[in-house]
Structures are given as C-alpha cells and as structure tokens.
C-alpha cells in the first residue's frame, strides 16, 4: 500500500500569518513555494512594512 501523498481537504497543513497572527491553510497556488509563504494574503503582505517599521 502506498503512503498518502495527496493533500485532502480537511487535512491540509497550516501556518500562522506573520502580520495578523491568524492561522491559514495550504492553497494549491502555493504548491511550489509553501516553505516560503509567510502571509495569509496580499493585504497582509502589503501591510508587513508597517508592522516591521513600528518594532
């Protein structure tokens, strides 16, 4: 029997967004770059500079 290699809805990897702190799940468009994904969406990615500049 082969190990499960497909990602199944409901059993997807999650990360915490570095800007808003909310958890977000794997998306198909991030298939090739999941390790580099840090933000849940474009809005958080655009606002990252504001949070980093305040620190």
How would you describe the overall organization of this protein?
The protein has about 55 residues and is of the alpha+beta class. The protein has a domain at about 15-25 and about 35-55. About 20% of the residues lie in helices and about 10% in strands. It is built from two helices and two strands, in the order ββαα. Strands 1-2 form a two-stranded antiparallel ribbon. β1 (about 15) and β2 form a beta hairpin. It comes from Hymenobacter endophyticus.
**Category by helix and strand content:** alpha+beta
Radius of gyration computed on alpha carbons: 14 Å
* Strand adjacency order, main sheet: 1-2
Compute the number of strand runs.
Answer: 2
Determine the fraction of residues in helical runs and give it as a percent range.
10-25%
Instruction: Characterize the largest beta sheet: strand count, sense, and whether it forms a barrel.
Output: 2 strands, antiparallel
What's the mean pLDDT score? 83
Q: How much of the residues is beta strand, in percent?
A: 5-15%
Described by the principal axes of the CA atoms, the overall outline is elongated
- Kindly, what is the distance between the CA atoms of the first and last residues, rounded to a whole number of angstroms? 51 Å
**Low-confidence blocks of residues:** none
Task: Give me the number of helical elements.
Answer: 2
| Helix and strand sequence | EEHH
């Amino acid at each position: 029997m082969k190990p499960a290699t497909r990602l199944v809805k409901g059993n997807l990897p999650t990360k915490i967004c570095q800007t808003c702190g909310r958890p977000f799940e794997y998306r198909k468009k991030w298939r090739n770059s999941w390790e580099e994904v840090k933000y849940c969406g474009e809005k958080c990615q655009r606002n990252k500079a504001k949070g980093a500049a305040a620190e």
